[in-house]
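User: What would this chain look like folded?
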Amino acid sequence: MKIPALASLFTLQHLAVVVGAVVIVGGAGGIVLTNKEKFGLAKADPDLTTSISSDLEDTTTSPSTASNSTEKKQDAAKTDAAAKPSTATKAPEAAKKAPAKNGGTGSTPAPGPTPAPTPAPSGSCPNAAHTPGGPDGAGGCWPYAGNTGVPAGTALSNYSGPCSISSNTVIQNKTVNCALQMYSNASLTIKNSVVNGFIENTYSNGTGKLIIEDSNVNAGAWSDGAIWGSYITANRVNVTGGQHNVHCEDACNISNSWLHDQYNPNGGSYHNNAFLSNGGTNMTVTHNTLHCTAILNATDGGCTGDLVLLGDFAPITYVSVQSNLFMANNSSISYCTYGGWTPGKPYPNAHHVVYQNNVFQRGANGKCGVYGAVTSFQVGAAGNVWQNNKWSDGTILNP
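Assistant: Here's the prediction, encoded as structure tokens.
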């Protein structure tokens, strides 16, 4: 499922691509190519390389638009992306308005997607309880700079491979100074590396997988997800920049990671999220620190939530949200999380959405967000579960 695109924004290098599997690792050996056949990439039509400049909270776009965009991207998979500067787009107003009241009664427990393993106890945590780097109440520390990203002491060398990934590729112990886009159902694995640019996997039909471990993703001034697309696994990743840290379409597994410091320029009207889905299925979000950090500005830019599920382009289904820290933002977050039940959207009904064992900070106003901690979670929907979610002071939080 591909989200309709609104503006062409990014720059990629025009580079040769290796046909067949490519493995790129650090150290003196440099790049190792397992297939020596090469071909040059033609320059792309810039209108085929696009992004979303809003989280589309008030959209009336037809789902058919998504299909048209997907067809364009399949055609563009044969080409590299053209350079084009980023421009901001006016964000909708709904994030600053209180959404509809939660609906339904009762609960129908159902298993969600298999959660990622909880990290092993890390000894003494350096920060206060229920803050990044503080005790998580389960023997470990919440994700922060010290337990996410490139491990201390890792030697990095500059990446000189392609930025358009058209064959199976491994990047390890590297500093990457470009955005990485995946084409032609190629898979990409990134380990112990710093990526100064966004990473996109929106072309895959399920064959091409994106795996990121023990790495930093610094998307900077980018108007969509720092990590964006489907079939994504991220573990112990420190993610900053982009309008959203993670923008998931389908099949995302985000664990033990720190999502924070999104891009929201002065004079812009972006609505930011640490984790966003505008519709999709099979998402697992486990033991992360989720922090939408932007402060409300004079042009109505700011946060929507830490984790936001909206039925814009597909129903929200089979989502597991477990053992995460939801950080307070009493300035611009409307609610810290939106649970997928969104009357007025093209796909208003969510099911099999599970929230368990999460911790919500209160913040200065005691509510986590401006209006509260949670909205749009329908307790009575099939398979929905809300269980043992608490405020950071230990009291039970009900939806």
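Residues 96-391 form one domain. If you want, I can go into more detail on any region.
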